[in-house]
Amino acid sequence: MASTTAAPAQGHTMSREERKVLAGTLVGTTIEWYDFFIYAQAAAFILATHFFDPLSADNPQLAQIVTWATLGISFLFRPLGAVVAGHIGDRFGRKITLVMTLFGMGAATTLIGLLPTYGQIGMAAPVLLILLRILQGFSAGGEWGGAALMSVEHAPVHKRGLFGAYPQIGVPIGMLLATLFMFGLSTALTPEQFEAWGWRVPFLFSIVLIFVGWLIRRSVDESPVFLEMQQRAKESSAPLGQLFSKYPREIVLAALIFAGNNAAGYLVIAFFASYGNKVLHMSRPETLIASLVGGVGWLVFTMLGGWMSDKVGRKRTFQIGYGIIILWAVPMWWVLNTASLPLFALAIFILTIGLGPSYGPQSAMYAEMFPARIRYSGVSIGYALGSIIGGAFAPMIAQLLLNRTGMAWTIGLYISLLSLVSFVAVCFVRSSDQGKDLHVAEVHEEYVKSHPGEIVPPVAGEPEGDVAPAAGAARH
């Protein structure tokens, strides 16, 4: 059955609606990751002494490991968030799901900024902290999938990688916002002021970002693919069942492809700053400056990676990115260990040269791996599982390796091996999927073939009253 939409012309000019969609997806992922990164950087510098005070007094290294674990625990709830948001998104629309997740993330972040410490309410403090982290993880599970699909489904076929890079750069932009905030507070306040109340300010600022995000998101129309899907009354009541039974290969590949990048990314986000400050005895502002350099590199190379994937292919771009990470992950530690700010920042910047190409094309590649009817669920769950395998406990594992061996290069070996797994996984993605029609017609045809004898509402452009042919019969 032929697609009912023609591919956009090569001379395509971005429309006002497409610009609105890209702005909406970029804002959403920026706010999501700002919330996550503020927590990650607070975990690097401050949370161990405020919420795990007894451990911090007796065993500071163990307290830091436990704090890194609270960073990772929210990732365990991302698949559940992806399941719920994916089901709602497939049924009722991308936009309403994005608004819900935006408010969930922001509310959890703001409440962390208001949370009493261990010294004020005892064990209730870490318990409430973990519960708010769970809410963050649940909300974030649905945010990325919706943002990625709104950008890719609006894209001309020859610019999917570039359009799909917009929600991706929300990660480094969110990191830059979080790091700038921490840097400003670290330099403007005395250490005592920062310890007492200054660290709370970036969490409370999330209220402002929620309002800005809501203003932009409410004006973005639903994606064309979803609007066409709504023309059919027959819809799967259990898309997840079909997802896991029919597309287990794609789910596993999607998860493994993301794992290496996510693990390396969380070193840039939080661990390097903690390592520089607590192990190399660099000042907090110095390590934050290095993180800012890393954030700029990540932003530039992520956009470049999305653009490259439209030119040389998604697989090749991923392979280039992971190749750089594999080769640099171990030697970069000898550069970091100089404790020289220019060299420390350079080591992080070189790592982002690999992070960008192995992240920028992700939205487009994932969208092309799954059919429209279960695409939201597929990309969200693949992404969530990949974040558990990769970044959820990467800082904690890095801290454990450092404590156990005393040799920082073993952390690089861990990142290199995980990136090798991701490199191999991306090799198994079907190259023929790139540029395929994301139109819902392919799903309609699949449904018709799998339900012989059933009257199926037509896709737009088809005559009404089609009856599904007998199994095995061709339908033209």
UniProtKB/TrEMBL annotation:
> Locate the Major facilitator superfamily (MFS) profile domain: which residues?
21-434
Annotated membrane topology is: Multi-pass membrane protein
Q: Which GO terms describe its molecular function?
A: transmembrane transporter activity
Q: Name one GO cellular component term.
A: plasma membrane
Sorted keywords for this record are:
Cell membrane, Membrane, Transmembrane, Transmembrane helix, Transport
Localisation: Cell membrane
Transmembrane stretches in the record are 21-42, 62-84, 96-115, 121-141, 162-185, 197-216, 251-275, 287-308, 320-336, 342-360, 381-402, 408-429
Subcellular location, principal: membrane
Q: What is this protein called?
A: MFS transporter
Organism from which the protein derives: Kocuria tytonis
